[in-house]
């Protein structure tokens, strides 16, 4: 297998990690046993564990580890792990009795606390079961250097029957592709120079925006400003997709605007329950946006930027909260994802490897000066998915918490539902269930704006 240099943003994520602040993404997927006769002999959990190991081992990207190099100075490459053993990455945990979904959610939060072993390919999968032939869950952890949201889906989807079967476990597995040196083609050299000048100009603009947007004395909700403990709690919420679309049709904007307004209203309700005084402005959300072009290779490095959004938690009227979110997001989109303080990834792309290696420890706390909460949407295939013939019922994405952050909210759409994964610092946000309930209540209130919408607003997950 050929090696591949880590892209600048991948390298930044790799060096931003610390023991108390692991930089991995995650997803918790819940499955129901297949109806009728199974295709596998023996207990279901043993068959699924073997299937997970076989399919994960066949994904080329999951056999790669990060290896330092001499040139460029401070750089690193993705290199084949010659001693790769999939059993070091795929594990089985038997849960005690009780509510299975609640138990799986609790253990997933604990597992998300643990950093990935850096000498190995940076990923893990956990099969969570209670009964040998009962419902089961799969927790996937992928280092952010390995995957942004879209690339994580491209990699992780390889475990599902539909994706594994479609590609026949052969050539189109996710992995590095050879890159022709830019100096081998004079025309490409000219394009490289022109693009480099444009990129540097954008980076200067982003740097200025970051300085202007930085808050050396952030004001917001106390839990979001609490110190990091390194502990993790996971909460889940399910929204009805048609309910969200009904609100969008009634009020305008996009479904994402509606979801961001639900987050703002949920935080407002949560603050009231905690007896907190609402801030005049904010809290500020970082809303990632992909810079990946349609049809681009999923193994071509992180391609991210982001928008900054002041969440209008101080506004008591839900319709006006939604209008404020829509106006702010329209303004962000008009400026584009490569401008403004949220486009830190654009700036990261212009830094040399040595700057990421030595600058990351200094930059670990900088996120707190720019934003208070991460709110991200992760795309999934629209078709129904299964594992070993067992249908996927629910899937909750999970985002990492950098130093200084105590809450991250990730959303994805599957099976006519919007699944929300809440990742929180366990000590800063011990009442994550209250926030989940606040999100449900906010959607219910927004639905009152749509009298004809008879869809059930939320499911009782959480």
UniProtKB/TrEMBL annotation:
Keywords: Acyltransferase, Glycerol metabolism, Lipid biosynthesis, Lipid metabolism, Transferase. It catalyses: an acyl-CoA + a 1,2-diacyl-sn-glycerol = a triacyl-sn-glycerol + CoA. Residues 301-446 form the O-acyltransferase WSD1 C-terminal domain. Residues 279-299 are annotated as: Disordered. The keyword Isomerase does not apply. It is an enzyme of class 2 (transferase). Residues 6-258 form the O-acyltransferase WSD1-like N-terminal domain. It holds the Pfam family WS_DGAT_C. Its EC number is 2.3.1.20. SUPFAM superfamilies: CoA-dependent acyltransferases. Pathway: Lipid metabolism; Glycerolipid metabolism; triacylglycerol biosynthesis. Belongs to the long-chain O-acyltransferase family. PANTHER family: O-ACYLTRANSFERASE (WSD1-LIKE) FAMILY PROTEIN (PTHR31650), WAX ESTER SYNTHASE_DIACYLGLYCEROL ACYLTRANSFERASE 4-RELATED (PTHR31650:SF1). This is Diacylglycerol O-acyltransferase. It comes from Streptomyces albipurpureus. The lineage of its organism: Bacteria, Bacillati, Actinomycetota, Actinomycetes, Kitasatosporales.
């Amino acid at each position: 297998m050929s090696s591949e240099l880590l892209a600048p943003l991948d390298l930044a994520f790799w060096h931003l990690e610390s023991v108390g602040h692991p930089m991995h993404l995650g997803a918790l997927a819940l499955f129901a046993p297949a109806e009728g006769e199974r295709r596998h002999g023996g207990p279901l959990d043993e068959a699924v564990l073997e299937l997970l190991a076989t399919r994960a081992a066949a994904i080329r990207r999951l056999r790669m580890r990060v290896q330092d190099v001499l040139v460029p100075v401070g750089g690193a490459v993705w290199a084949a792990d010659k001693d790769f053993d999939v059993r070091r990455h795929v594990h089985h945990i038997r849960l005690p009795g009780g509510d299975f979904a609640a138990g799986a959610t609790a253990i997933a939060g604990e597992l998300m606390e643990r950093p990935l072993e850096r000498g190995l390919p940076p990923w893990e999968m956990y099969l969570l079961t209670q009964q040998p032939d009962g419902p089961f869950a799969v927790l996937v952890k992928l280092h952010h250097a390995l995957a942004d949201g879209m690339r994580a889906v491209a990699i992780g989807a390889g475990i599902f029957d539909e994706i594994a079967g479609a590609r026949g476990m052969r050539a189109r597995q996710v992995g590095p592709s050879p890159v022709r040196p830019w100096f081998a083609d004079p025309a490409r050299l000219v394009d490289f120079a022109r693009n480099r000048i444009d990129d540097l100009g954008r980076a200067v603009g982003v740097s200025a925006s970051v300085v202007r947007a930085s808050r050396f004395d952030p004001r917001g909700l106390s839990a979001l400003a609490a110190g990091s403990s390194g502990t993790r709690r996971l909460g889940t919420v399910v929204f009805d997709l048609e309910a969200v679309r009904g609100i969008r049709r009634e009020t305008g904007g996009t479904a994402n605007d509606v979801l961001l307004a639900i987050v703002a209203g949920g935080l407002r309700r949560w603050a009231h329950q905690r007896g907190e005084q609402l801030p005049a402005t904010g809290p500020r959300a970082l809303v990632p946006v992909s810079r990946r072009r349609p049809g681009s290779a999923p193994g071509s490095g992180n391609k991210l930027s982001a928008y900054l959004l002041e969440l209008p938690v101080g506004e008591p009227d839900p319709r006006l909260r939604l209008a404020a979110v829509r106006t702010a997001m329209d303004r962000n989109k008009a400026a584009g994802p490569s401008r403004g303080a949220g486009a830190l990834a654009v700036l990261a792309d212009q830094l040399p490897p040595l700057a990421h290696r030595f600058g990351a420890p200094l930059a670990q706390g900088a996120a707190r000066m720019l934003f208070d909460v991460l709110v991200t949407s992760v795309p999934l295939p629209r078709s129904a998915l299964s594992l070993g013939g067992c249908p996927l019922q629910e899937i909750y994405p999970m985002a990492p918490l950098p130093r200084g952050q105590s809450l991250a909210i990730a959303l994805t759409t599957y099976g006519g539902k919007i699944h929300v994964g809440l990742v929180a610092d366990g000590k800063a946000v011990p009442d994550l269930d209250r926030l989940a309930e606040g999100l449900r209540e906010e959607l219910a209130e927004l639905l009152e704006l749509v009298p004809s919408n008879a869809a059930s607003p939320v499911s009782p997950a959480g």
